[in-house]
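Thread: magnesium ion complex, take 2
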Amino acid sequence: RAPLLEVSDLHVEFRTQYGVAKAINGANFWLSAGETLAILGESGCGKSVTAQAIMGILDTPPGYVTQGQIKYRGVDLLKLSENERRKVRANRIAMIFQDALSALNPVYTVGFQLGEVFRKHRGMSRSAAKQRAIELLDQVKIPAARTRVDDYPHQFSGGMRQRVMIAMALALDPEVLIADEPTTALDVTVQAQIMGLLADLQRERNMGLILITHDMGVVADVADRISVMYAGRVVEEAPVYDIYSRPAHPYTRALLESIPRLDMKGQQLSVIRGLPPVLTDVPKGCAFNPRCAYARDACRQDPAPPVYQVSQQPHRTARCHFFREVIGE
Ligand code: SF4
Ligand code: MG
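Output below.
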């Protein structure tokens, strides 16, 4: 299957007062139609910037794509005019953010805001747009959609507001939905419900779904494949089962060990020592080396580990010189 979305060798830089921050440093991944890809990593690893680069909304603070391609159905989005880009963003690739409250306008009802999308992009009448808004609220499982459509954002709970945001993103039937930390602001029960909803909608609509998260615990049941990012690179890429059962990169392994487990209640979890690097000052060699339990001399020397093929069937890669040792344990 040809990929729906393919990101190759993506580099993004930010000019900061401390120098050039290399937020994305050669990221590669792809998404097939009807597939769910999770992009995983701690904050500051480049996940959100990658999403913003795909959406073409890299502008605060000034960020630039300096190299690479973002192909959607074979067309490099980076070569399109701003106008063409806007059309892709409106109709093909949609995104939802962590903070649903600030993304909704407090002075209009959710029905009006949803209806606005149909009036503007589909030229619908006010009443037809409202009808579609009700249908969408219903599809994202908001109870009593017919009456809730006239409520204001503050009248919804956090979880229900996130459902409204999902409805908004789905309004124009995108082929790709990018969800950036969609459940982080919610409590655990609601998180699971929203993840379940996204999984259902992905299946019903056969959409490509990209789930961006720092929490390995929330995507295990939902994702088909996982790309793990560290310091602006994809350091491991594999089908979800393989990642959880036999991680090939020490960073993935450390992330797995830090998932809270129900049967370990009250016990100290292992957290990864240290912090991700400051992006204006990424360590030489493998960027993970100061935190890595497997690190040795070769890891502290440039160039950074290349993309090693871990296996062909299933397709797996890892950027670690010693992936065989890591996976063998
Ligand atoms: Fe650790 Fe070295 Fe592998 Fe980097 S290359 S993850 S430092 S073992
Ligand atoms: Mg983020």
